[in-house]
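Class prep. Sample record?

___
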Amino acid sequence: MLELKDLHKTFNPDTVNEKVALDGINLHLLPGDFVTVIGGNGAGKSTMLNAIAGTWFVDSGNIIIDGQDVTKLAEYKRASFLGRVFQDPMTGTAAGMQIEENLALAQRRGKIRGLRIGITSAERDEYREKLKILELGLEDRLTAKVGLLSGGQRQALTLLMATLKKPKILLLDEHTAALDPKTAAKVLEATERIVQKDQLTTVMITHNMKDAIAHGNRLIMMHEGHIIYDVKGEEKKGLHVKDLLAKFEEVSGGEFANDRMMLN
């Protein structure tokens, strides 16, 4: 479903601010793979996600999604087959519109949208059923303005909108980082239910090592633009945070220095 072939990306080349963000990344995901990505600041996690999304082009290498080379495809053209949830709960929804209106916009993504107004009763029934999977009671608040929702409710709604039309790949960019621990856990539970229900190929960046171990069938660790550790299946299930720290020190030759991740 996703192939990254020898990706390279350098910001501000040939200047004092030169930063090699991706240094020969290779990754191959099968349909239905749920991969969690961890690493310190500047490891290349978000750069890799942005490269997949087309937010910026890579310097060299190839990005292939479901057999199609999208390396030179513009971001807006990739949006029709990618779902994405950002770190900021305020991103991805229209605050001044109702819950059902936001869902209708997501459902009509990629279609020609005219001036005809209206959400059918069949669509409302569908939205209620879809919202139930979040277990937040939003199915009874279809006409509520999204701006009145809490950060966690809004992020969960964004997640549902990103997956309403089954994307080829779901990209989660630290989508629980701005939430309190209890709310983050609820959103992660909803994420797991949605991903499993539709067997979505998913890439989730997280700063929480425990979450990286607990969710998904595969875990990769990045450091200085490289994938330095890739584990899946039963081996992943048996991991502990201390194992990840030990592996980082073994491969990188130094201690893991990221206060935000260590505190989690």
Summary: The chain has a mean pLDDT of 88.
